[in-house]
Amino acid sequence: MELSPRYDPHEHEAAVYTRWLEAGSFTPAAEAPKGAEPFTIMIPPPNVTGVLHMGHALNGAIQDIVIRHKRMQGFDALWLPGTDHAGIATQAVVEKKLYAEEGKTRQDLGRDAFLGKVWEWKELHGNQILEQYRRLGASCDWSRTKFTMDEDLSRAVRVSFLALWEKGLIYRGARLVHWDCVLQTAISDDEIEYETRKGKLWHLKYPVKDQPERFLVVATTRPETMLGDTGVAVHPDDERYGDLVGKSVVLPFLGREIPIVADESVDPAFGTGAVKVTPGHDPADYERGARHNLPIISILEKDGTLNAEGGPFAGMSREKARTEVVKQLEELGLLDKVESITHNVSLSDRSKSVIEPLVSEQWFVRMKELAEPAIAAVGNGSLTFRPERWKKVYLDWLENVQDWCISRQLWWGHRIPIWYDEDGVPAGSADELQLGDAHPKTGKPIVRQDADVLDTWASSWLWPFATLGWPDDTADLRRFYPTQFISTAREIIYLWIARMVMAGYEFVDSLPEAERCPFTTCYVHATVLDGKGKRMSKSAGNGIDPIAMIEEFGADAVRYSLMMLTREGQDVKLAPARFEEGRRFTNKIWNAARFVMMNLEGERTDGSSAAAVEVEDRWILSRLARTRSEVHTALTDYHFNDAATALYRFVWNDFCDWYVELAKGRLAGEDDSAKAARGTLARVLNDMLALLHPFTPFQTEVLWAELGRVLGDGERGMLVRGPWPTGEGLAVDEAAEARIGVLQEVVRAVRSVRALTMVGERKALDTVIVAPRAEDRDVIESSVERLRGLAHLETVEVHAAAERPPSSAAAVAGGIEVFVRLGEDVDTAKLSETLARRADKARKGLEALSKKLANQGFLANAEPEMVEAEKVKQEELEQELALLERNLEGLS
RNA sequence: GGGCCAUUGGCUCAGUUGGUUAGAGCGCCACGUUGACAUCGUGGAGGUCAGUGGUUCGAAUCCACUAUGGCCCA
């Protein structure tokens, strides 16, 4: 295959992905290879309604890098994909569509027909986001794709529900819950968001019973709820109201007498210091009411309109009732005043409507007991967070966890597995029962199933093991559970991570307690912000579509850029232009590989070992040894940015800028040096592609195949299956690194002179190099040809000591003077400036160093090696400064 | 209201346990194109590390406070 001069991702991505799929590359072997340890990642299942956003792309890239690294290393690697049925979100999407297209509501269709519509929609659109993950290169085992409402996962939900119910950890009761009046369902604490809004604080006058002309003024942001008041509370120490405690006020409109109670929870400084108590519609009042035995009155229907308790306002919407109540109180002279305030309003995450606290019958999970092992898990090291600070967030939530309202008044979801006979006796069953079946306990016919469905998290908390076959003790469960790594966004720590840990400990009883934690590492990835530092969101319209970025820059470039940009979960500001870095890099890799292979055609070298006959061969192999080790360590520790940076430097700076340039002159021949250069190029490219593969899988797979062909090794498999470079045959070579270091210094010095004196690139220059150290002279003398090539020199004279030749410019590098012969008319002003600047800098550095070395405190306290190192540095700096000053004089 | 994070050259970010003459990429300036790559090469300019105080022989790095921006939770 002819490689094009530019890397074109469109040409390869789809084809490469198809090859992986056809080879079953992502599916673990039917049986775990002998000695191979498992490594499992469970994808955080995206909503079936979802489309890929940048957060998914980042998270997907991270998981893919981890699993590819492990797979190449020979682990029994599984990355299991799937989607979440997302109860409210999905139902809302389909309801909206149904209404828009047919003008019907779900009630018009009825439960079964509506669910049919949702399934239809799911089959049609539910795989979109998984398709998008493929575009990113995600190496999930698609043969194990799961959906939270699959029959086996649904059964797992029923089994888990019944287990908790039988243990008394699930109960049913009337409680104040967060009610979404638009979607008409209860929602959990975690589905609420808060918005700071400007509002009003109405001061209402309640007439005190039997004390004409005396009023108790209460302040409220929700005046319509006064219809549900069953008391008024003041602080016990509040002198303004002391004499009123124990008396009553008469509720306007309704004439209900309600008591005045003293309660510590009242803030005397807020409003008037007297608060109306509405246990049916406010969580704080619910508790106050309970303390003082106040009745609970619910004034709202499920749709947010006022019921009969609303008296003259019955039938109005809550908004209308508010206006009317205020207006009529004013007419009655019972409105004291109105203040403007800003306060936090609770909104439903899904419908964005104002949450109404409402008392209703719901199912709850007792969380305290379940939380205990999850709390212990981080203490005993079973679970680690990366970065570690998220541990605190996790623990805070668990330690203050409230009972979990798991019932939802929806149709789309797992229906609660409780059936009733005609007497209302409940019975649970893991298998679905039919109406008319005999009730398991009473034997009477079943007349109905509980109408509610479960919160989506009540299925996704089972994800790490239900996807592997739980509650059955399957081979997959034994083989792949517990998992090793999970990657998620921070706001999911409580919603999902904490619950999965609880569920793991509670349900996976085929394992000893110590082995039940569903994952060992929870990686909390960065939040992707827009170019201005704001969170990307659909509503703000500031999102960047990853698929559009993949189209424009290529999947590899997108992945690489994301890794270069995000350091250890530090938030990242992202703009489309940031992907150019990745594109440039993938192009660079492409061309480096292209160059190597152009020079390898027909060469018979297996690329696995390289005969290093020249110092640059030893040097690049030494750099490769270091880079391999850095990348491997970084990936093992999940430091993706470090690995990406190390690879970038190696590929671009070491390999392309220096080694390839040094090798160019040797490749023409057929001698040992040429052969060694080819062998080294092949070896380095080979390992480089493998090390890059987790980051840029598409491109490296293409190049790997091409390299195999060029080397005549058609038998080797795809890179996706490894091998991961072990570093075999590679060693750090300090001597070679030092020698090339000297060479680099000299080359840079000449180039700098050339640029600063404007002599141009064309002219080959004559140089005199003065190197007092014998080892430096040795390097330079043996590298004259290299210097001639890299710095475009004509002659190179090397001396231990010499005067500056006439008409020459000078550069100083690491104790070495490089004199470049120039014509008389050459302008050395810029060069002098640069030398002067460097001399200044050296002088400042030296000053600081001398001060430090004269400091008794430093000499007494610092480690001896440190003092010694500073002395060496001082000597070097002194020498450099002397050279700079000497040459500066000569130039001016 | 509680918690967390950030503040380093024009922009985006590195800087491991305190000791560097404070780094990188982009952008900018200058020069360069008969072949790996102009999605390129070479050289250069540019920062008293948000502020104040403290700890220390020594602080971009540790502590406290302040300011600004952001995120999560209530």
Automatic annotation (TrEMBL):
<keyword id="KW-0030">Aminoacyl-tRNA synthetase</keyword>
<comment type="similarity">
    <text>Belongs to the class-I aminoacyl-tRNA synthetase family. ValS type 1 subfamily.</text>
</comment>
<feature type="domain" description="Valyl-tRNA synthetase tRNA-binding arm">
    <location>
        <begin position="827"/>
        <end position="891"/>
    </location>
</feature>
<keyword id="KW-0648">Protein biosynthesis</keyword>
<dbReference type="InterPro" id="IPR013155">
    <property type="entry name" value="M/V/L/I-tRNA-synth_anticd-bd"/>
</dbReference>
<protein>
    <recommendedName>
        <fullName>Valine--tRNA ligase</fullName>
        <ecNumber>6.1.1.9</ecNumber>
    </recommendedName>
</protein>
<feature type="domain" description="Aminoacyl-tRNA synthetase class Ia">
    <location>
        <begin position="16"/>
        <end position="574"/>
    </location>
</feature>
<dbReference type="InterPro" id="IPR037118">
    <property type="entry name" value="Val-tRNA_synth_C_sf"/>
</dbReference>
<dbReference type="InterPro" id="IPR009008">
    <property type="entry name" value="Val/Leu/Ile-tRNA-synth_edit"/>
</dbReference>
<keyword id="KW-0547">Nucleotide-binding</keyword>
<dbReference type="InterPro" id="IPR002303">
    <property type="entry name" value="Valyl-tRNA_ligase"/>
</dbReference>
<keyword id="KW-0175">Coiled coil</keyword>
<dbReference type="GO" id="GO:0005524">
    <property type="term" value="F:ATP binding"/>
</dbReference>
<dbReference type="Pfam" id="PF10458">
    <property type="entry name" value="Val_tRNA-synt_C"/>
</dbReference>
<dbReference type="GO" id="GO:0002161">
    <property type="term" value="F:aminoacyl-tRNA deacylase activity"/>
</dbReference>
<dbReference type="InterPro" id="IPR019499">
    <property type="entry name" value="Val-tRNA_synth_tRNA-bd"/>
</dbReference>
<comment type="subunit">
    <text>Monomer.</text>
</comment>
<feature type="short sequence motif" description="'HIGH' region">
    <location>
        <begin position="46"/>
        <end position="56"/>
    </location>
</feature>
<dbReference type="InterPro" id="IPR010978">
    <property type="entry name" value="tRNA-bd_arm"/>
</dbReference>
<keyword id="KW-0436">Ligase</keyword>
<keyword id="KW-0067">ATP-binding</keyword>
<dbReference type="Pfam" id="PF00133">
    <property type="entry name" value="tRNA-synt_1"/>
</dbReference>
<dbReference type="Pfam" id="PF08264">
    <property type="entry name" value="Anticodon_1"/>
</dbReference>
<dbReference type="InterPro" id="IPR001412">
    <property type="entry name" value="aa-tRNA-synth_I_CS"/>
</dbReference>
<dbReference type="InterPro" id="IPR009080">
    <property type="entry name" value="tRNAsynth_Ia_anticodon-bd"/>
</dbReference>
<comment type="function">
    <text>Catalyzes the attachment of valine to tRNA(Val). As ValRS can inadvertently accommodate and process structurally similar amino acids such as threonine, to avoid such errors, it has a 'posttransfer' editing activity that hydrolyzes mischarged Thr-tRNA(Val) in a tRNA-dependent manner.</text>
</comment>
<dbReference type="GO" id="GO:0005829">
    <property type="term" value="C:cytosol"/>
</dbReference>
<keyword id="KW-0963">Cytoplasm</keyword>
<dbReference type="GO" id="GO:0004832">
    <property type="term" value="F:valine-tRNA ligase activity"/>
</dbReference>
<dbReference type="InterPro" id="IPR033705">
    <property type="entry name" value="Anticodon_Ia_Val"/>
</dbReference>
<dbReference type="GO" id="GO:0006438">
    <property type="term" value="P:valyl-tRNA aminoacylation"/>
</dbReference>
<dbReference type="InterPro" id="IPR002300">
    <property type="entry name" value="aa-tRNA-synth_Ia"/>
</dbReference>
<dbReference type="InterPro" id="IPR014729">
    <property type="entry name" value="Rossmann-like_a/b/a_fold"/>
</dbReference>
<feature type="binding site">
    <location>
        <position position="538"/>
    </location>
    <ligand>
        <name>ATP</name>
    </ligand>
</feature>
<feature type="domain" description="Methionyl/Valyl/Leucyl/Isoleucyl-tRNA synthetase anticodon-binding">
    <location>
        <begin position="617"/>
        <end position="767"/>
    </location>
</feature>
